[in-house]
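Section handout 9: paired folding examples.
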Amino acid sequence: MRYSDGGAGWWVMAVPGQGFEPARGDEREPPSGPVPPSGPVPPSGSVPPSGRERELRTAYEGMLQIRRLVNGPAGAAVPAPWEVRQPARAVALALEAAGFAPSAVDAEGRRTRTGYRVADGAEPGRTEVTWPGPPGGGAAEEEQERLTACAGVLEGLGWVCLLYRGPRRRRFLEVEPPR
């Protein structure tokens, strides 16, 4: 695991020369669905983590280590300076590492999977988390519960979260660093 300041603050390099990009919920879903694991079947029926899962774990652990190194006495309890400069990336990393599924779109941009979506907020330094899904998929019914769970994870990592009701009565989470 390596760290780089890459000109934009400290971030984790899962592949040398490239930073890990967490899913933000606007990625295209593979047309054939998930790729089955290759290689020998592991003992006791457990499935080894995929390459992306290993990179995610490395990036998340790296984020916590950077916090401990740069935050002084606050340690891992508050966002590091790079997270404050790139809040959408940091929030997406935290949600994906916590096991929340990101939303996904098809080639035409239509939602194909219900999950979180992280986007830059209306004001600099803020991020919005929504819970979109395909039409008729039930995202609107589960969004309050799921966004509240997202807030619990983010607040545990030192972010400040407020749940709002926005256009068309859909809820969203506004996330910002502590003041």
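Moving on to protein 2 of 2.
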Amino acid sequence: MSIPSGDNFIVRAVPVLQIIGYKNSGKTTLACKLIAALTAQGLRVGSAKHDAHEFRLDDYETDSEKHLSHGALETILTSSTATRSMRKSSTSLDEIAQQLYGKVDIIIAEGFKSARYPKIALIHHAVEMRDLLAQAADIRLWISWEAHEDLQEQGLTLQIADISSKLILYIKEQEDILHKAISLARSLL
């Protein structure tokens, strides 16, 4: 995938599929199942997670935390089995996709509602559909904790022109959800 740049040149980036929704909607569960399924198919899968809250880059009193608290803007912690990069600034999903180019085949991103990539949205209640449509674009699949009939009773699918009943899956249709999520992810490659 190529991303147009302001300097009239193209930046290479990895395809991204976002999973969005509100707290406890099932985003992480779906992301983990999708990562496992795509990995089992031989794809190199990366992931990104947006945290809406502040978090610590490292545990108190570790050497890397001391480096950061003394002014390092970024530090990399590595061992014989793993590496972790810690930076004292936010990173956009576009930047993450650029950084992972050539390292992974696709990124499954949890959150980043306002980013421009294709999305799967999970909702608990019908009103969340309207809210997410106001915050996010390119939602290609909806997964609802309410049965489709309940959504129709509320008149939601008829009021929102962008929603087709074929795009809304009930959370209990786990096999169908995973199959459609895999198909969507593979269509981005």
